[in-house]
Amino acid sequence: MSDIRKWLLSSVLLATVLSCESPEKEAKTAEVPKEESPHALVETVTMSEQVFDEYLQLTGETEAVKVASVTPQVPGLILSLDITEGQFIEANVPVLTIDTSTARARIQSIDVQLEQLDRDIERTKLLIAKNLGTSTSLEQMESQRSLLKKSINEVRVGSRQAITKTPIAGIVTKKLAEPGEFASPGVPVARIIDISTMVVRAGLPERDILYVHEGKEVMVHVAALKKSFPGNIHRVGVEANTRNRTFPIEVHVDNANSELRAGMRAEVTLIKQSLPVALVIPRDAVLQAINGQEVFIVEAGIAKSVPVELGPGMSRFVVVEKGLKPGAEIVVRGHRALVNGEPIHVVSTEPCCSAQIALLKPIATQGGENTAPAEGKSPETPAAAAPQGQPTASNQPLTPSRAGR
Fold it and tell me: Which candidate, 51, 47, 50, 40, places its Cα nearest to that of 330?
């Protein structure tokens, strides 16, 4: 009897365990993965005609166009130097006076010698008239008188040059001497710069010489001021720097409000060439093929490889000169593992690429405002949000389970 009870108890326990396991088995059965889609997931952009400008940027420093020194013409002690550093001064203003007391004393000495020589000449003429003198002595005295007159004229001219005027209008940047010091001809006592017009000197690469000419308009951006200024190319050098193969250029910038200062770092931006009608695509869409370069386009849900010829570019974008037409849908993501004729599924698309290129233009062409995207941000326009449950570029891999390709 006890055996029967044990058998019944075992049967009940077994039935209880089986009833608990059946939901787990059903759950496991429900988790059997469905067959994944055989189509590759890609992102695309749609091409359209647009204006494309290719820019050239050069780096240089601002300098004053006019720089001059106040330099004495005669030696002597400085009696006065009426300038201070930082002041603005007009041209032709007397600022430097040299002591002329030595010159005045020399003039008086020469005047005395001339008076005595004149008396000697008159006396000699009387003696010659009485046959008591010789013409040779008279000629010597007259020659000596001519030399003394020449000397006194030179001293008087030098005395008049004791006052020096400013050569240009501008700002005094350096005062190099003080009253009481000795001044020498050719040694500056002050430096003046005129900053009403500034010049930016830069080096132009040899490969870009065809795009630059005198008078061409440019924009000059000064990062320290967070501002851009219009300018024009004043001179293009005719001799290259043999070390870096660049030609010197000078860009003149109007500085009537004196915002610019000498020695500021500046970036010169000019348009190399402007294409009124261009087809532009992201560089990343271009693949290297055996016979050149190609991109994948979408035609009726199929990936089709198309050879292309590229032109000028800017940052992440490049002009397509041959191979594509406006309206073409270009694969820009998920294209590296594609093969020609493969079925694909487009998860997102957007127009290309006017808005993105506008964000990448040099700061100087944007009126000085820095509209570049923040660090770590992409200037691309975000793709439209996909319906809930649909794959997107941010939350779904583009090519699921294609390891065998």
Answer: 47
Report which secondary-structure segment, H or E, holds 106: helix 101-129
Q: What is the pLDDT of residue 6?
A: 58
Looking at residue 393, its pLDDT comes to 39
User: Where do we find the tokens 């402007």?
Assistant: 274
CATH code given to domain 40-57+274-366:
2.40.420.20
Give the angle subtended at the CA of 300 by the CAs of 297 and 305, to the nearest 5°. Answer: 25
How do residues 129-155 score in pLDDT, each as one tens digit?
777 777 888 788 888 888 888 887 777
Is pLDDT at 25 greater than 50 in this prediction? no
Would you say 286 and 293 are in contact if contact means Cβ atoms under 8 Å apart? yes
The pLDDT of residue 382 is above 70: no
Closest CA to 64 of 234, 198, 263: 198
Cα dihedral: 21, 26, 31, 35 (round 10): 140
258 sits in the region (left: phi over 0; alpha: psi -120 to 50; else beta) called left
Which CATH architecture describes the domain 60-64+198-273? Answer: Beta Barrel (2.40)
3-state secondary structure 333-363: ECCCCCCCCCEEEEEEEEEECHHHHHHHCCH
CATH classification number, 75-99+162-188, choose in 3.20.20.70, 1.10.10.650, 2.40.50.100, 2.60.40.1120: 2.40.50.100
| The residue to which tokens 């233009």 are assigned | 361
Cis bond leading into 352, ω under 30°? no
Segments making up each domain of the chain, as ranges: 40-57+274-366, 60-64+198-273, 75-99+162-188, 100-160
Q: To the nearest 5 percent, what fractions of the chain are helix, strand and coil?
A: 25, 40, 35
Q: Quick check: 378 and 282 in contact, CB under 8 A?
A: no
Q: pLDDT, tens digit, for every residue of 199-256?
A: 999 999 999 999 899 999 999 999 999 999 999 999 999 999 888 899 999 999 999 8
Instruction: Judge if 60-64+198-273 and 75-99+162-188 fold alike in CATH terms.
Output: no
